[in-house]
C-alpha cells in the first residue's frame, strides 16, 4: 500500500510513518504536547459525543432504579468513553512534535480499543434481548439467544480484524477497515433487526391475547420504543452500505457521506437512555393520572349516592361536597 505524505508540514515518509500520510490521522501541523493533542480531539464530533454520552447516561443512571437494563446502558457508555480516550490518546501521543522522527510500525492500542467498541456496540442487541425476555421465556427466546450469540462471535471477529488492520498500518481508516466496518455493521444490524421483529411479534401476540391495544402503556410503547428500534436498525444498515461503497468506490464517492450516520450511531446509547427515561416518566405520569381520575370518579359517586339518600328521607345527614 502506498501512502502519500501531507505536503504542508515536512513529515517523514515510509514504513512506520503512515500516520503522517493523507490517509493517516495526524493533522497538517503536529500537536505541541500530548495534552494539546487530546484537547484538540474535542473538535471531533465522535470523540466529544462519547464523552457527553457518558456524562448524561451516568446522570440518568444515578437517577434511575439501577436495574439490569440501566447497568448495561451505563457499561456501554463507559466502554464508549474508554475506547474514545484510547483512540484519541494514541493519536495525540504519536502526532506530537517530539514524535515526528519516531517510526511507529505497530500501534497496539488500536487493537486493544476494539474490546471497548465491541462492548459498546453489541450492548444494543443485549438490551433488546432483555425486552424480549419480558414477553417470552420459553423455547423461542432460547433460540433467539443462540442466534444473537452466534452473531456476536461473528461481530467480534470483524471488529478484531478492524483493530488488527489499524494496528499493523498505524492508521485508523483504509480500504480494509472500511470493508471490515461494513461487515461488522451488517452483522450487528442483523442482530438488531432480529430482536426488533421478535419484539413486535410478541407485543402483537400479547395485545391480541389480552385485547389491550388501547391501553395507555401500550400506546406509549408503540410511540417511543418502536420508533427507536426502527431508527437504530435503519441507520446501522445504511451505515454498513455506505462504508462498503466508500471503500470500493473511494475515487467516486466522498467519505464524508458516512459522517452524519456515524455520529448518530455513536449516540445510540444516549438515544436509548433518553427513550427509556421518557418512557418511564410517561408511564408514571399516566399512572398518576389514572389514580386521580379514579379518585375523582369515586368522589362523584359518593356525592351522587349521598344526595339520593338525603332525598329519600333517610335519617342520615350528609354534606353535599
TrEMBL record:
Which domain of life does the protein's organism represent? Eukaryota
**Alphabetically ordered keywords of this record:** Membrane, Transmembrane, Transmembrane helix
Q: Which residues cross the membrane?
A: 45-63, 72-95, 107-130, 142-162, 182-203, 224-249, 261-279
Q: What is this protein called?
A: Uncharacterized protein
Species this protein is from: Neocallimastix californiae
